[in-house]
Amino acid sequence: IVTCPCALGLATPLAVHAAIGRAARRGILVKGGDAMERLAKPGLILFDKTGTVTQGRTELLTWLGDTSVQPLVLAVERQSTHPIARAVATAFAHHVAPQPESLVHKLGGGIEARVSGRDLVVGSAPFVLGRAQPSAQADAWVAQLAAQAQTPVLVALDGEVVAALGLGDPLRPDAVASLRALEAMGFRVGLLSGDHPTVVAQVGAQLGLSPEMCRGGATPEDKLAAVEAALRDGPVFMVGDGVNDAAALAAATVGISVHGGAEASLQAADVFLTRGGLEPVVEVLTGARRTLAVIRRNILFSLAYNLVGGGLAIAGLLSPLIAAILMPFSSLTVVSSSYRARTFGDP
Question: Pairing between strand 188-192 and 160-168?
């Protein structure tokens, strides 16, 4: 009568069910209890770059040179739907721009136009330098922007390079703090991206990661191979948002798809974060550890209750009435422990 195998049987599934429910209310969708258990073990956590540790949108970060040509640049860039052109047009939206007299888009290069009686060329460095006078200043600007992991765009007016723009994808505001928190939890953190290795190395430096933990130029096949190789040394967690990450997400110990991810990444991942930023990544890993602690506590209580209750019954120190009262009490204690535990959210 006094022993309660129900309490022991409910210890794990109740804790997991309660934790998954709490996580869902926090915008963290976990596919199952096995994923929750795997999340609680530290290991290597790999982040895609674009849209994951960065904001996934192009912005004008730097302007070098003559600012008086900004209205002319706006005049031609607002005529294009290219992401870089939209970023420049957004940055200069406060200017009053004239209407171009003529304008020609060069695929993969830039724009040639005549604005306010001036010949204007805006585009990539090779494109503009092929249509303007050689300039040591332009070369220095391009080198400076590349060193800052920014995409250089040159502006030439009447055959002379007069300005340079640096465009890039800024880091998420919580990226650095979140990565430091993961390292404090015992995770090794790295970048695994398809972007140019120089850009990935620069972003890694901004995040405070060592160069050997930052790999760029990775194809989807390379990402899959990197995850599979790392799995030989322990758990690997992949965090990404794109189609290129799907295979790596599926192969990882746990795949985590972040807010705004492509449908393929959502299907491959074990966890989907509906909130932006990297703080939810820290929260899901912290919550998984708390969930495991609740499971251990439930199992410990169940075992202790059954051992003590069974021992007292064998010794003849419990009456059937007291045993009948204690038996459901043990199950209620496990239920209360599971649903009152603060696994996700503030401790």
Answer: unpaired
Q: Which residues are registered as beta bridge partners of 65?
A: 163
Sequence-separated contacts (24+) of 136-142 with Cβ below 8 Å: 137/161, 138/164, 141/64, 141/65
Q: Residue 120 has what DSSP assignment?
A: E
Q: Is residue 48 helix, strand or coil? A: coil
**Dihedral, 207, 213, 214, 217 alpha carbons, nearest 10:** -160
88 touches 153 (CB < 8 A): yes
Per-residue confidence band for 200, with pLDDT thresholds at 50, 70 and 90: confident
Give per-residue pLDDT as tens, 252-270: 999 999 887 667 777 889 9
d(CA 343, CA 113): 60
Distance CA 36, CA 19 (A): 9
Cα–Cα distance for residue pair 225/307, rounded to 1 Å: 49
The tens digit of pLDDT for each residue in 101-138 reads 999 988 778 999 999 999 999 998 999 999 999 889 99
Residue 242 reports pLDDT greater than 80: no
pTM over 0.85: no
Question: Is residue 211 exposed (0-12), middle (13-18) or buried (19+ Cβ within 10 Å)?
Answer: exposed
Tokens representing 318?
């419990």
Active-site residue (options: 34, 48, 66, 169) = 48
The answer to whether 245 and 192 are in contact (CB under 8 A) is no
Give the bridge partners for 112, in sequence order: 104, 121
In the numeric block, the tokens 């899959």 are attached to 224
Sheet containing 214-215: order of strands: 28-30, 271-273, 254-257, 236-240, 44-47, 188-192, 214-215
Q: Is the pLDDT of residue 198 over 90?
A: no
- Told to judge if 174 belongs to the known catalytic residues of this protein, a careful annotator would answer no
Residue by residue, DSSP assigns 210-230 as -GGGEE-S--HHHHHHHHHHH
Q: What is the DSSP letter of 49?
A: I
Instruction: Quote the CA–CA distance of 141 and 156 in Å, as a whole number.
Output: 13
